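Fold this: adenylate kinase
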Amino acid sequence: MFRRVTTLFTSAPKPSLLNQVAYGCSLYTTRMSDSEHRHVHSDCGYPGLKELCKGGPGVGKGTQCTRIAETYGFTHLSVGDLLRNEISSTSEYGDMILETITKGKIVSSEVTVKLLKKAIETSEADRFLVDGFPRTEENRVAYEQIIGIEPEVVLFFDCDEEEMMKRVLHRNQGRVDDNIDTTIERLKVFEAYTLPVIRYYTEKGKLYKINAIGTEDEIFERVRPIFST
Ligand SMILES: Nc1ncnc2c1ncn2[C@@H]1O[C@H](COP(=O)(O)OP(=O)(O)O)[C@@H](O)[C@H]1O
Ligand SMILES: O=c1ccn([C@@H]2O[C@H](COP(=O)(O)OP(=O)(O)O)[C@@H](O)[C@H]2O)c(=O)[nH]1
Ligand SMILES: [Mg+2]
């Protein structure tokens, strides 16, 4: 079985650098029952909304985060992109990150939170959409401790495993992890490490499940009410 996760965060305007962070959304497929998820409701207004988006590999997190950011004025921070930028730079972490991504494993929180913090601090923006993070409970705790913000809303993009695999294999961006073996591993990692994060936010009453099957436009229309007051 395949599973996927995507994450986005939005943040509320705030005074200090770290307060600016918005939690994003994640996309993933899951075996959780619908009763475990909250659904988007009309009183989830913006501004003041902090969002976290979750979903599995290829579910469309990045695609939807880009549209959300453009439409609602967020700065889109993809942690995957931050990590890939490190690989192509002279970063001391480059080799480790490449090996980790190639295997479909998770980079340590020490590195990812450091990169996120730097991206936020060097940006002049005051609202961010964080995509594809946190992927583990350790990520979540480290992020909330260091960034100092807990998301109010977590978007969960739900898609069947076969469709996620199909989207990954057709992504055509030359990524080292866009292959069958790595994606299967990523789905296992999702189930073992990311699903607990989803459950955490479900229990906190912050999870919003979005059906990620359909066209990009159709999915965006399902997301839109969350950002529209
Ligand atoms: N609703 C959709 N239907 C079909 N393909 C999609 C859809 N949304 C995104 N894609 C495509 O699927 C691939 C993975 O999308 P991406 O946004 O990178 O997902 P993720 O960030 O969750 O891994 C891309 O090639 C993208 O163009
Ligand atoms: O918080 C994160 C985000 C990404 N990754 C690594 O980067 C890869 C690609 O992540 P990305 O979000 O770009 O993938 P997507 O889900 O969009 O396909 C993951 O499989 C991990 O190896 C990580 O370790 N921690
Ligand atoms: Mg992505």
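The beta strands are 9-11, 22-27, 51-55, 75-78, 128-131, 153-158, 207-211. The chain has a mean pLDDT of 78.
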